[in-house]
Write a structure and sequence with these properties.
CATH topology: Rossmann fold
Number of domains: 1
Strand content: 25-35%
Radius of gyration: 18 Å
CATH class: Alpha Beta
Structural class: alpha/beta
Strand order of the largest sheet: 6-7-8-3-9-10
Bound molecules: adenosine-5'-triphosphate, magnesium ion
Largest sheet: 6 strands, mixed
Shape: globular
Distance between the termini: 20 Å
Low-confidence stretches: none
CATH architecture: 3-Layer(aba) Sandwich
CATH superfamily: P-loop containing nucleotide triphosphate hydrolases
Amino acid sequence: MSAPDRSIHLEALSRAFRVGSTTVHAVQDVSLTIPEGKLTVIRGRSGSGKTTLLNVLGLLDRPTSGSLRYGTTNVLRMGDHERDRFRRNEIGFIYQTIALVALMTAYENVDFRMRVAKAPLDEREKRVPECLHLVGLSERATHRPFEMSGGEQQRVAIARAIAHRPRVIYADEPTAELDTVTGIHVVAIFRRLIEEEGITVVMTTHDPAMMELADHVVEMENGYVLEHADDSM
Ligand SMILES: Nc1ncnc2c1ncn2[C@@H]1O[C@H](COP(=O)(O)OP(=O)(O)OP(=O)(O)O)[C@@H](O)[C@H]1O
Ligand SMILES: [Mg+2]
């Protein structure tokens, strides 16, 4: 028997926005497979559709047309409730502008995400320190965001995104605010997560240094995907 398919399959996926009397085709007819357990980078100029595609993939937004499957699961056919639960349990998000809760410590920020996923207390008490350790922040557990550097806050955001053991993480320009060395460090953490926890990571970036670290690069232009490096799968 073969292993279950946990790759993400997009077919003719489009997302258009109506603005007044015009239509913006932010994502157009995208068909590709995002391989499981790899680092996929989506690159492209500003306005090329990266964030729109990420939001559709992460079930924060619905496509105008096309199909989206996680393995054999057609996630677009899910009802609202089922989709919310799927997103809460299976998906982790990291945003460009770090959205930590300012009044919470690093520990509490990570723990909060597990509470949202309804993880029991004993599991949280084990998992939160483990996640902070994974991103090298055991020493900062009791610090609040304003008591940490930008790179440290970004690493807390990663710890938070993985705490509930999602199968895929979407990161929208997670390194944009960081210097190259710190950015590479963040991507190295993604690589570790892929190897140690089998997570699939999809990140957008403008930075060529980050692309070198990817298994798979998807290039977008005007909503279209230009190239798709199948040989890396
Ligand atoms: N809610 C919206 N309503 C109308 N147009 C939108 C909306 N969201 C995005 N767009 C348009 O869709 C296109 C793609 O936007 P998107 O945010 O996906 O680009 P991006 O590749 O992430 O760019 P950046 O690198 O600047 O973050 C842009 O032309 C944008 O103006
Ligand atoms: Mg964007």
